[in-house]
């Protein structure tokens, strides 16, 4: 029974570290990288002035009335 807590603590700390690194890697490859690619693809062809004119024509802005 000597050093039972220390021995089990080493095991659980190692396991927690492995699980946390695994979760971080899964999040990066499943969520973060596809999101970065989607944003890059969106902004590759994005024209903010065209979008502004569409919103202006729809009457979204009070300071910029529709033409």
From TrEMBL:
PANTHER family: CYTOCHROME C OXIDASE SUBUNIT 6C. GO terms for biological process: mitochondrial electron transport, cytochrome c to oxygen. The lineage of its organism: Eukaryota, Metazoa, Chordata, Craniata, Vertebrata. It comes from the Eukaryota. Component of the cytochrome c oxidase, the last enzyme in the mitochondrial electron transport chain which drives oxidative phosphorylation. The respiratory chain contains 3 multisubunit complexes succinate dehydrogenase (complex II, CII), ubiquinol-cytochrome c oxidoreductase (cytochrome b-c1 complex, complex III, CIII) and cytochrome c oxidase (complex IV, CIV), that cooperate to transfer electrons derived from NADH and succinate to molecular oxygen, creating an electrochemical gradient over the inner membrane that drives transmembrane transport and the ATP synthase. The keyword Transmembrane applies. This is Cytochrome c oxidase subunit 6C. SUPFAM superfamilies: Mitochondrial cytochrome c oxidase subunit VIc. The keyword tRNA processing does not apply. Belongs to the cytochrome c oxidase subunit 6c family. It is a single-pass membrane protein. Pathway: Energy metabolism; oxidative phosphorylation. It is found in: Mitochondrion inner membrane. Pfam families: COX6C. Transmembrane segments: none annotated. Keywords: Membrane, Mitochondrion, Mitochondrion inner membrane, Transmembrane, Transmembrane helix. CDD domains: CcO_VIc. InterPro entries: Cytochrome_c_oxidase_VIc, Cytochrome_c_oxidase_VIc/VIIs, Cytochrome_c_oxidase_VIc_sf. Component of the cytochrome c oxidase (complex IV, CIV), a multisubunit enzyme composed of 14 subunits. The complex is composed of a catalytic core of 3 subunits MT-CO1, MT-CO2 and MT-CO3, encoded in the mitochondrial DNA, and 11 supernumerary subunits COX4I, COX5A, COX5B, COX6A, COX6B, COX6C, COX7A, COX7B, COX7C, COX8 and NDUFA4, which are encoded in the nuclear genome. One of its GO terms (cellular component) is mitochondrial inner membrane.
């Amino acid at each position: 029974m000597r050093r039972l807590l220390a021995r089990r603590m080493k095991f659980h700390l190692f396991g927690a570290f492995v699980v946390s690194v695994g979760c971080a890697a899964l999040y990066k490859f499943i969520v973060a990288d596809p999101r970065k690619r989607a944003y890059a693809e969106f902004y590759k062809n994005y024209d903010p002035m065209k979008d502004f004119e569409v919103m202006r024509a729809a009457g979204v802005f009070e300071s910029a009335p529709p033409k």
